[in-house]
Specification:
The chain is of the alpha+beta class and 726 residues long. The protein has three domains: 2-302, alpha-galactosidase from lactobacil brevis (Beta-galactosidase, Chain A, domain 5, Distorted Sandwich), CATH 2.70.98; 314-395 and 555-566 and 577-609, Alpha-Beta Barrel (TIM Barrel), CATH 3.20.20; 613-724, Golgi alpha-mannosidase II (Immunoglobulin-like, Sandwich). Helices cover 20% and strands 31% of the residues. The strands form seven sheets. Strands 5, 6, 7, 8, 11, 12, 14, 15, 19 and 20 form a ten-stranded antiparallel β-sheet that branches. Strand 6 (118-126) and strand 7 form a beta hairpin. Helix 7 (436-452) packs parallel to helix 8 (480-498) and helix 10 packs parallel to helix 11 (564-571). The radius of gyration is 27 Å and the shape is globular. Bound molecules: (2R,3S,4R,5S)-2-(hydroxymethyl)piperidine-3,4,5-triol (DGJ). Residues 319, 349-350, 394, 461, 463, 507, 509-510, 526, 529 line the site of (2R,3S,4R,5S)-2-(hydroxymethyl)piperidine-3,4,5-triol (DGJ).
């Protein structure tokens, strides 16, 4: 086998990706657990349906490929689809050469994973059409993730139209993968959904210009034999598409990940190259390993290294407390309370600019609403800083209100299809970020805001999707969605360069743009506008499948249905804060909040950067939820337990932990639920092996004191702190 084929093997810590090359064809021989060598035998075929291979082989018989195109006889969804300069659709890409280089090959205009170890470049070409397709496979020293992207170059003289160029194709054996995706809506983001794909095509996608709350680009596919999980994501913030195609004729499943070809076509002129964003793929032994790998990858290779393992500040945001109705006096009162409680960062949300008292005006007018602020933003920020707090500011740069000076002066900046009435969402239109003047205007105006209030933190919001795709400055509307994202990245990159120390949090009507592209620039993302803990539980658990807790903005709010303690117990697993009018809290509530803040600060690094294990899943049949977060040296851990079902006349649940040191002795202590004024109600010691392997009931932990009693919802939560004592 070795002699017969040119074999290219790329290893990660625990996996191997093996290509076999012969006569211009490139097949995937293996992607899965690491192997040291390939079998030396002609009778062990690793990549062909009928054991045939060679120049005369029908490409239809090659079951596992990393590329595909229209006209290849394969009759499946393809990686690349073009209209050639002669007007035909047919392509014929063949393998030309490959090389292995050190490090990554990042792009100038798109975020690419950082700190790469090496990159395999495979070059394919369609000589007749004068097209070159380069595939880049990048691996990382401490990770099993492989980042993949494509570059298509037009070496001919005429124009080529690109109808589709996905970032990644992976073909695997078998046709009954269970696909796990994370879908939802506003305030219901990233709920886990399982779909068995046994025939035909299954697809997730976004079409509104953002990665979306409706379908996140992250998904997993579980091997039908139960041995292993493939996982995929895309480092991109715009329209994405993920296809899983079960090909029963050849017993193979194809995965495709990339930019959505919805409303997409791109003109590739002579000499031009189109580069896709990077997609990432992973093979792991379990869903838990996928999660751990994804978390490490985000922290080590996506997030700006300056913030990657830096503790995130504990904030108070005024939005849910005041909405648009605030005065300087109110904000200062709030800041006083925040300082008294131990908060570190005060964030002024929507309503501080133009003449914005509701959502119908002023987006685009990023100058101070002096009457409301009783002076300038800069002065207010100084007063807040004088209380010992950092100051943070909210902006929504990508939008424009028709009632704004910006719109009156530059109606052409708004995205409106000439002759048509635009669709308004939340009374606003989207700015044409394809237009370089708009990009430059934003770089200047938002830069000035950050400068004049000396912001420590910026919340970058985006409260609607794109519906009317149009730019007066660019001919081909088929490139619009993608060029919008490039424009957005250009603006953010310029601001990041000017303000490298500012912590950015991205937001899109809650979690409508929770993706690796935004996380590359902004280390955290506001997870959802849903802050009621029962629903937050599901949203956070779904999000945590692919994104680490430090990336997840999570706040305690004043919502009515549950206690402050349950809100805290849920929100503490994230970049934590409060979002309420603290001046309206009772003394008792303020005392509870103070204790929460002390606890959070004490364990912040563990909660934000410890290793997270899902224990009981809220998406499981039991409707319970639990997790444990463990420090790197396993010397301490915090576990969370939640009952969400009716508890009347029930037997106490049993809980199991994992990941603790089998050989250590731990003390454990249930954190008091201060809304019930109880002391620590369970404590003791236990060996790590017992904690990891036995099931524990915590007696009457939930039966007497639940949020069900005072608040009427079936939710009861507890935190347990473990410390190694021997
Ligand atoms: C939507 C965000 O998700 C909220 O947190 C808040 O910032 C509002 N926008 C303000 O308009």
């Amino acid at each position: 086998m070795r002699e017969k084929f040119n074999v290219v093997k790329l290893d990660t810590t625990n996996t191997s990706l093996v290509f076999a090359v012969n006569d211009g064809n490139l097949g995937i021989a293996h992607y899965g657990k690491k192997i040291t060598d390939l079998p030396q035998s002609d009778s062990l075929d690793m990549f062909l349906l009928n054991g045939q291979w060679g120049a005369s082989v029908d490409r239809f018989n090659i079951t596992k490929m990393s590329y595909s195109f229209v006209g290849d006889g394969n009759m499946r969804e393809s990686l690349v689809s073009v209209i050639n300069s002669d007007g035909t659709y047919t392509s014929r890409f063949v393998y030309k050469k490959h090389s292995l280089v050190n490090g990554g090959i990042p792009l100038d205009d798109l975020p690419c994973a950082r700190n790469a170890e090496k990159t395999l470049i495979v070059e394919l070409a369609d000589d007749y059409a004068n097209l070159t397709l380069k595939q880049y496979y990048t691996v990382f020293k401490d990770s099993d993730i492989i980042a993949v992207r494509q570059e298509l170059t037009n070496n001919g003289k005429g124009n080529v139209t690109v109808l589709r160029l996905m970032s990644l194709q992976l073909d695997v054996s078998g046709t009954s993968y269970n696909c796990v995706s994370f879908n939802g809506a506003w305030a219901r983001e990233r709920y886990r959904k399982d779909t068995a794909v046994t025939a035909g095509t299954w697809m997730i996608q976004s079409m509104g210009g953002q990665s979306s709350a409706i379908m996140n680009p992250f998904f997993m596919a579980k091997n039908p034999d139960g041995n292993g999980v493939y996982a995929f994501n895309l480092i991109y913030s715009g329209n994405h598409k993920e296809i899983v195609e079960a090909c029963n004729d050849i017993n193979s499943t194809r995965f495709l990940v990339g930019i959505n070809d919805y409303c997409f076509n791109l003109t590739l002129k002579a000499g031009e190259t189109f580069a896709t964003p990077q997609a990432v793929m992973l093979f792991a032994d379990s869903e838990q390993s996928v999660t751990s790998e994804m978390h490490n990858f985000v922290n080590n290779h996506i997030v700006d290294p300056k913030f990657a393992y830096k503790d995130r500040p504990l904030l108070l945001n005024n939005w849910e407390g005041t909405h648009f109705s605030f005065t300087e006096e109110k904000l200062l009162e709030l800041a006083d309370k925040a300082a008294e409680l131990g908060v570190e960062l005060f964030v002024l949300d929507d309503g501080w600019f133009g003449h914005r008292d509701n959502d119908a005006s002023s987006l685009g007018d990023w100058y101070d609403y002096k009457e409301k602020l009783n002076g300038s933003l800069g002065k207010l920020a100084d007063k807040i800083r004088a209380k010992g707090l950092h100051f943070g500011i909210w902006v929504e740069p990508e939008m424009i209100s028709e009632d704004s000076d910006l719109f009156r002066n530059h109606p052409e900046y708004a995205m409106i299809v000439p002759g048509r009435e635009p669709i308004r969402r939340r009374n606003q239109l989207v700015l044409d970020l394809v237009n370089k003047d708009v990009q430059d205007y934003l770089i200047k105006e938002i830069g000035d805001v950050i400068e004049r209030c000396k912001a420590y933190y910026v919340k970058w919001d985006c409260n609607r999707h794109i519906s009317d795709i149009y730019s007066a400055t660019f001919e081909n509307t088929g490139e619009y969605f993608h060029r919008y994202v490039l424009g957005l990245y250009r603006v953010i990159s310029a601001l990041k360069k000017r303000f490298p120390d500012v912590l950015f949090e991205s937001c899109s009507a809650g979690g409508n743009r929770f993706d690796l592209g935004m996380l590359y620039y902004m280390p955290q993302t506001w997870c959802s506008d849903m802050t009621e803990p029962r629903h937050r539980l599901s949203i956070q658990e779904g999000t945590l499948y692919a994104y680490p807790q430090s990336a997840i903005g999570a706040h305690v709010s004043a919502c009515q249905n549950s206690s402050f303690e349950s809100k805290f117990n849920v929100a503490c697993l994230g970049a934590f804060g409060y979002e309420l009018d603290a001046t309206k809290c009772t003394q008792e509530e303020l005392e509870i909040i103070k204790k929460q803040i002390v606890f959070y600060k004490q364990h912040r690094h563990l909660l934000q950067f410890g290793k997270y294990y899902r224990l009981k899943s809220i998406f499981g049949r039991e409707r319970k939820s639990s997790w444990i977060i463990i420090s790197e040296d396993k010397s301490e851990a915090i576990a969370f337990l939640a009952e969400t079902d009716e508890l009347i006349n029930s037997v106490p649940s049993e809980w199991r932990f994992t990941g603790l040191d089998d050989n250590a002795l731990y003390s454990f202590e249930v954190r008091p639920q201060n809304n019930f004024k109880s002391d620590v109600i369970a404590s003791g010691t236990a060996g790590g092996d017992a904690l990891n392997n036995c099931e524990f009931s915590f007696g009457k932990l939930f039966s007497d004191e639940t949020d069900r009693q005072p608040y009427g919802t079936p939710l009861a939560t507890r935190l347990i702190y473990f410390k190694r004592i021997d």
